[in-house]
């Protein structure tokens, strides 16, 4: 044996001992894990998935098909068996050194990028059998008869979740990246991963919410949400922030912007380079932004009408008083845009012309097609939410975050979980993911009103949504409007937004489809020159006809919106400082409400 061989043997022995030492630390972390799980607050099981009736109907449909058309079922089974045997045969060939390439030319899956998935007989067999199993499950669901459209859509969704969950990359013995790192780090990666898991569970009272960003890397008002401004008004629902002018003169008509209260407003002010808030002030506008309260138990009975009265209407009146004007230009993002639409209907019925124009960012008003949210908007799931909020008074942030994440589970749940819990990696210092994890609780009453009256019953479009002594209807929205939607938005699909805009009563409507999704399509500064947008002034046809006739434009839609807004913003006046004698500055932006974390 050479000196080099002796050294390798000693090093290998030392590594194994270090590995054993690291593994002994698992006991301590296991105790913490057991402790946090023993203190986990139970929740309604309906929040975790559909009731058993869906699966029972699916099973009945499957066996009915088997009885009526046994040849078809047998053909599927024989196909599955044949593929499984071929996978095993390929593994045998590989062991004999005759492994053929398994690349079928399909789209690459980042989960299987490690060369061992191709070169190792073991990992290659695991991968191929997983793909075979996934195809068999999808085929069985696709062929399930006697299910209505919504049941088939829900069954497809939950089957896909099972497929994603059972990926071999989600388990240590079948993840070569995790195994290689565990050996290379003498087990330290597994210790770090278990520490990350326990920490995440402790932070959420036993609920597993995968941390997506390094929270220690960001400070509100420090390196994010830094555009200067002042809180000039506060009530139990919101803080109203007036941003400092960036120009010597401004347009007479101010802007008041209502972000969604499911997340925090600073998505529009992450950093100077992509801050819409900063950019708007630089275009010569007086800008006010609402920062919504993060609901707690005291807000249990708060409803949609409170967001309208103490939020939108109060903000509009306050802005009018501070700026000494009769009208404002209003902007609503996502659910705040939906609520702005309800408010515009109310103002129309009251004969109030306080809103000169309205801009909607990714706003749904017609919920006739529930899209990817269909699995979560059926009675069994909403019944579970209603029962839980009756107990808690709140729809807690983790429920909303988990629901949103499962729509993109590969990228927002399993991928980050593998990196954090099996690879022991620290989450990245990514501002967008930090914001994504900084959610908000929703008042129980408001959540049920929204889910039942709007999402499920679509009352704003149908017979009218009863609120504040009025029956609010989409046709009453008659101010000049612009709607900005996003091409790949899976939360507020642009075709659904388009359908709602078509039904609004406004004579002047502008509709834009931005490239990218719910966030990146909106936070798309001109300086980045990243995503383009589509326009078409003809809104008479359906969404397919609109897009077919649309013109594509390079770059951000922000300058186009500015050109539209300038025509509705009046003459130039001296730039306004924050507040006035009746509304003194309460504190600098970003205020205090935005700093409150959601209770678990």
UniProtKB/TrEMBL annotation:
Q: Where are its TM segments located?
A: none
Q: Which GO terms describe its molecular function?
A: acyltransferase activity
Could you list the residue ranges forming a coiled coil in this record?
9-36
A Pfam family this protein belongs to?
PhaC_N
**Keywords of the record:** Acyltransferase, Coiled coil, Cytoplasm, Transferase
> NCBIfam families recorded for this chain?
PHA_synth_I
PANTHER family in UniProt: POLY(3-HYDROXYALKANOATE) POLYMERASE SUBUNIT PHAC, POLY-3-HYDROXYBUTYRATE SYNTHASE
- Identify this protein by name: Poly(R)-hydroxyalkanoic acid synthase
The record lists the organism as Leisingera methylohalidivorans DSM 14336
What is the phylogenetic placement of the source species in the record? Bacteria, Pseudomonadati, Pseudomonadota, Alphaproteobacteria, Rhodobacterales
């Amino acid at each position: 044996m050479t000196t080099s061989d002796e050294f390798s043997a000693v090093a290998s022995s030392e590594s194994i001992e270090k590995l054993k030492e690291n593994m002994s630390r698992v006991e301590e972390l296991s105790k913490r894990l057991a402790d946090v799980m023993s203190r986990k607050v139970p929740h309604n099981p309906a929040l975790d998935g559909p009731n058993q009736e869906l699966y029972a109907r699916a099973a009945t449909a499957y066996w009915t098909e088997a009885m009526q058309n046994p040849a078809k079922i047998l053909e599927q089974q024989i196909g599955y068996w044949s593929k499984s045997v071929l996978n095993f045969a390929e593994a045998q060939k590989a062991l004999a050194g005759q492994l053929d390439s398994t690349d079928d030319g399909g789209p690459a899956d980042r989960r299987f990028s490690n060369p061992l998935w191709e070169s190792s007989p073991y990992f290659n067999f695991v991968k191929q059998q997983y793909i075979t199993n996934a195809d068999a499950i999808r085929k069985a669901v696709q062929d399930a008869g006697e299910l209505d459209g919504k049941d088939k859509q829900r069954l497809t969704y939950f089957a896909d979740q099972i497929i994603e969950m059972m990926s071999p990359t989600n388990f240590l013995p079948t993840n070569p990246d995790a195994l290689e790192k565990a050996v290379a780090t003498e087990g330290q990666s597994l210790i770090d991963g278990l520490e990350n898991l326990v920490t995440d569970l402790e932070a959420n009272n036993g609920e597993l919410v995968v941390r997506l960003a390094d929270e220690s890397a960001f400070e509100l008002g420090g390196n994010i949400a830094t555009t200067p401004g002042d809180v000039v008004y506060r009530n139990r629902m919101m803080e109203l922030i007036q941003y400092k002018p960036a120009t010597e003169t401004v347009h007479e008509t101010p802007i008041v912007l209502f972000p969604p209260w499911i997340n925090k407003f600073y998505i529009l002010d992450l950093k100077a380079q992509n801050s819409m808030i900063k950019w708007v002030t630089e275009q010569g506008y007086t800008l006010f932004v609402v920062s919504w309260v993060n609901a707690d138990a005291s807000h249990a009975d708060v409803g949609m009408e409170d967001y309208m009265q103490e939020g939108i209407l109060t903000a509009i009146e306050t802005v009018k008083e501070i700026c000494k004007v009769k009208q404002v230009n209003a902007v609503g993002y996502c659910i705040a845009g939906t609520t702005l639409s309800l408010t515009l209907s109310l103002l129309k019925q009251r004969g109030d012309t306080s809103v000169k124009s309205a801009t909607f960012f990714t706003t749904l008003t017609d919920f006739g097609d529930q899209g990817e949210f269909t699995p979560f908007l059926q009675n069994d799931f909403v019944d579970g939410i209603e029962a839980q909020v009756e107990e808690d008074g709140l729809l807690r942030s983790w429920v909303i975050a988990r629901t949103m994440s499962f729509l993109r589970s590969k990228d927002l749940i399993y991928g980050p979980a593998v990196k954090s819990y099996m690879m022991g990696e620290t989450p990245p210092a990514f501002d967008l993911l930090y914001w994504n994890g900084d959610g908000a609780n929703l008042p129980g009453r408001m959540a049920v009103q929204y889910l039942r009256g709007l999402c499920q019953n679509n009352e704003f479009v149908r017979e009218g949504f009863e609120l504040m002594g009025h029956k609010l209807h989409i046709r009453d929205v008659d101010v000049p409007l612009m709607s900005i939607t996003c091409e790949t938005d899976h939360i507020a699909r642009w075709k659904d937004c388009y359908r709602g805009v078509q039904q609004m009563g406004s004579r002047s409507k502008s509709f834009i489809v931005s490239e990218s999704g719910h966030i990146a399509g909106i936070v798309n500064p001109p300086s980045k020159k990243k995503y383009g947008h589509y326009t078409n002034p003809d809104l008479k046809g359906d969404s397919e006809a609109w897009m077919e006739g649309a013109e594509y434009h390079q770059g951000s839609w922000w300058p186009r919106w500015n050109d539209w807004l300038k025509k509705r913003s009046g003459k130039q006046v001296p730039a306004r400082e924050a507040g006035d004698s009746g509304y003194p500055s309460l504190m600098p932006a970003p205020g205090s409400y935005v700093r409150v974390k959601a209770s678990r």
